[in-house]
Structure prediction request, 340 residues.
Amino acid sequence: MTFDFLDDDYTVLDRSILQMYAECPAQARLSETHSCSMPAIAESGEEIHRAISRTITTYIESQGVLSPHDLRNEIERELWESRTDLQPEVINGFRYSIYKFSEFLTGLHFQNILRFDGGAGELSGQLSYDFESLKVRVTSELDLLHATDSPALLAEIDWKTGRKKFNEQAVSESFQFQLHAFLVLMNYPEVEAVRISVWNTRYNLVSWAVEFRRTDLGPIRTRIQMAIQNWFENRLTPIEDVPTWPVREKCRICDYAIRCPAADIEVKDCSYDPKLWVKRMIVVKKRLKEMEDLAKSYVKVNGDIRTDAGDIYGFDKPKTTKRTASFYRTKKEDEDEEDK
Prediction:
């Protein structure tokens, strides 16, 4: 999400667009020129975030007098009053976290809640930082930022409502959370570190907190600046000339792979019609089963089948406790292949 030039000639770049330019410039440009409807799980995630925000607001307005039981009733009511077409998915996306969330929130002194998504005024989760030499204002919204027992340490919780489960490596390497750590430390100069953890509300899983220290900001600042540079270089470039950075792991979850010239045809097919893709998988699996049955019949009469490349199919795979037919290679074939 980008904004028009402000009165002070700063361009505002939101985390989401910066992250796409950091991941793949072509994806970022395609997102700007082609609309893409959000899946139900993403739309329900927005509803869950709103329910959490309203519940935190109620807790702060009560000055922390609400009990865990009161909070459970409050968050349940907010979830039930979500958008009618999404309500069942919204409830499913948070039902296992209701008790733990209520205990967690009431365990926080309301004055220790510094910022949160949906907060008003100084409690707003929106943080920004100006790169003066670039005339760019980078901004992102934090789900929840709170104080800890140490004045030099803050903690951030990010609500995730999908099916992805985050570990420490995923958090520490994420552009989103590196940017969040940068924004927190730039806006709170007296703070030396911020601990960030992801709470997956669907499974009630909280990742181990990853600590970002002020001494870690060198490469993070550079990564952000490079994303800004990618935006400057490609924001007006014709789509066909924008660099593509195809990586199978990224392309298979990209909403715009179907329009990308660099994406594998398999990725495009799956993105275009995932149900048809699964049907094809079932057909291929059935066909493979039929081929294996024929191969097994041959092997039972004639012995294992050996290809010119050294692959073998049959019952005599070394070091198996159960006699099954499968593909395998012997050590000798591997050594002979390396000698070629």
Observations:
- The longest helix spans residues 274-302.
- DSSP finds 13 helices and twelve strands in the chain.
